[in-house]
Amino acid sequence: MTSTLFSRRQILTATGGLAVAGSSGLLVPASAAGLAPTPTMRGGPNNYRPGAPIVERIGGGGFTMTGRVRRAGDGMPLPGQRIQMWAHTAEGHERDPHSHGATLTDANGEFIMDMPQIVPAFGQAHGHLAYDSGEFKTVFLRPLMASSSDTSLHVEFVLEPA
Amino acid sequence: MSARTHRLSGLLIWAAVVVIILLALFASASSPFLQWRDPVYQLASFAGIGAFVLMLFQPLLATGLVPGLPGYGGRRVHFYLGLLVVALVSVHVGALWITSPPDVVDALLFVSPTPFSHWGVGAMWALFAAAVVASLRRFLPIRYRNWRRLHVTLVTTAVAGTVLHMLLIEGVMEPLSKVALCIVVVSALLIALARRNQRV
Known about the structure:
The complex is a heterodimer.
Chain A: H1 8-24, E1 63-71, E2 82-87, E3 100-104, E4 110-115, E5 127-131, E6 139-141, E7 152-159
Parallel strand pairs in A: 1-7
Antiparallel strand pairs in A: 1-4, 2-3, 2-5, 5-6
Chain B: H1 3-29, H2 39-62, H3 71-99, H4 101-108, H5 115-135, H6 144-167, H7 175-199
Helix pairs in contact in B: 1-7, 2-3, 2-7, 3-4, 3-5, 5-6, 6-7
């Protein structure tokens, strides 16, 4: 006589169902149904210089950094938000002041910055971006370029109130 | 195989090794990335490459497989090259620190976002430990055989960690010659280990 509480088939069906539900997002709690805030990435704040000036373009340009800034939860675009960015580029190291610049998001919460070509440094072609203006929690991003020959990079900020 | 063909094949192998080293160094020296790096950063890159190239000779010197340097002579050179590898790795890390302090601090604390940093820092500590174990041989209360096992384990870890560190990095080394150099260094270590284990 078997005295198991669940048959192997029942367990397999249940765990399989859970796996499907989990991977399809059906198990996300209702309270977090909205957009989750973007976490700060490891290494994101490295070589950050607070208060980089708002500029039309960083250096000679040629590389396009684009992004969108939204509010956590309802996903509403956030206009007028100051985003700072820096990178190791064809015109300077990350720590050089002239490698840093800032811009503001437009009415759709989007921003675009013309900056020098990002080149691989410390083993990876990557940029740095910061939201650090106080109204929302500070977020540092360190996005990687899929290929070091890319001439653009796009990032998404989802901010939560400070 | 006659002694003469044996010597000829040895010569060809050494010629191939030297060509691969020179190709790797030449390809690195012509990397486009160098134009965007200041001298300290360039120094860091080439100190790392130099340390790895020297790692190729270490196991061969220790086992007397370098032509003209059998036995004690080879081990003397092994000792000084070992010191040089430690010095070059220190220059590598120090110059990277000057280039970008927060990135090196992250790497040393194993909190860097880049996995190759973990392998590199792990390899560095294994190398330093191997050097300490080597210098303290006469004072360590362990048998020669166990001392050798310890030293070999540490340097093998250092080589393996360095290879992973290099392969994951997009840097001044040209990818093909980098892989070729890694194969040569790993082969040298394996050949030396195989020779040595036959004898012991």
